[in-house]
Amino acid sequence: MKNILLPTDFSDNSLNAIRYAIQLFENDDCTFHLFNAYTPVVYDLTYVLLSPAQFGLRDPIRAASQEGLDELIKELLNEFGSNPNHKFETIARFETLIAGIKELIIERNIDLVVMGTKGATGAKKILFGSNTVQVFREIKFPVLAIPSNFDYVTPQEILFPTDLEVEFTMGQLQVLKEIAKLHTSKINALYVSTGHGLSEIQDRNKTLLPTLFKRMAYEFHDVEDMEIPAAINRFQEEHSVDMLVMINNKQSFFENIFFKDTINQIGFYLNIPFLVIPSKQG
Asked: Which whole-number Å values give the CA distances from 244 to 144, 176, 213, in the listed order?
């Protein structure tokens, strides 16, 4: 059984991500862990060191968080009905979002984190909400970010841009493979050539990829030298892409695309769900 962590702040944005996860894994045995991290607007040292329960007091903030989670489950069951494959658990915790996710990944034996992200907003051209950027940077674990207002589409075509510099492993690509197998998706690996030919490592990794995706629909696309965002954009224009997947290898390929100042040129990314896989978990 899969364990899927679903952080929520009760916004429409996070609800949309939860609805996506339920539909993505409709035919898979899953426990969905709905997690709300709450922090009192004003609290003193007493609140941090000693819980209100020690004073015989009801903690209204925690109670509101738990009530919100209970209502959310009722809403989901009302919309999707009772699926024998699915089980829901709730966690209301006085914690920061990042620390809470890190703890729950271990405590609940989590396989995947699914969360909403706001996407490009008008003139600001913000690619990701601040929470999502923080999670991508600090959580060394597979995270699937769902853009706000994205209506569920079966991921038939998955785009997997790579610089072929990562030493691919079976375990690293497990989440991607499981999603692809569930939906008989086609995986499109995209490499933007620099005109200098492949290094020995890149050539080895290019040969390795089809063996890791054997018995699955897989195609390798070699694109002429251009900016990577432009290459991804062109591929999306020419093909119907339902999910974008990248490995965060902490090298220039991922970091330069997503965390540089000129990020406004790639607002289109958030038209589709985006799975980020760390090069190493931990």
From this structure: 10, 10, 16
C-alpha 117/C-alpha 243 separation (Å) is 14
Q: Which residues contact 24 (CB under 8 A, 6 or more apart)?
A: 114, 152, 155, 179, 182
CB 130 within 8 A of CB 96: no
Classify residue 126 by its DSSP letter.
-
CA angle 94–277–206, rounded 5-degree value: 175
pLDDT tens digit sequence for 28-65: 999 999 999 987 655 555 555 555 555 544 577 888 89
Which domains does the chain show, CATH number per domain? 1-152 (3.40.50.620), 153-266 (3.40.50.620)
Token digits of residue 186: 């086609």
**Cβ atoms of residues 20 and 113 within 8 Å:** no
DSSP code at position 186:
E
Tens-digit pLDDT profile for residues 214-231 = 999 999 999 887 777 778
- Residue pointed to by tokens 């799975």: 275
Measured distance CA(236)–CA(269) in Å, rounded: 9
- Say if strands 217-223 and 186-192 run parallel, antiparallel, or are unpaired: parallel
Q: Evaluate whether 248 touches 277 at the Cβ level (below 8 Å).
A: yes
Nearest C-alpha neighbor of 206 from the set 248, 165, 257:
165
| Span between the terminal Cα atoms of the chain, in Å | 21
- What predicted TM-score, i.e. pTM, was given to this entire model? 0.87
Residue with tokens 């902490």: 250
Query: Helix, strand, or coil here: 250?
Result: coil
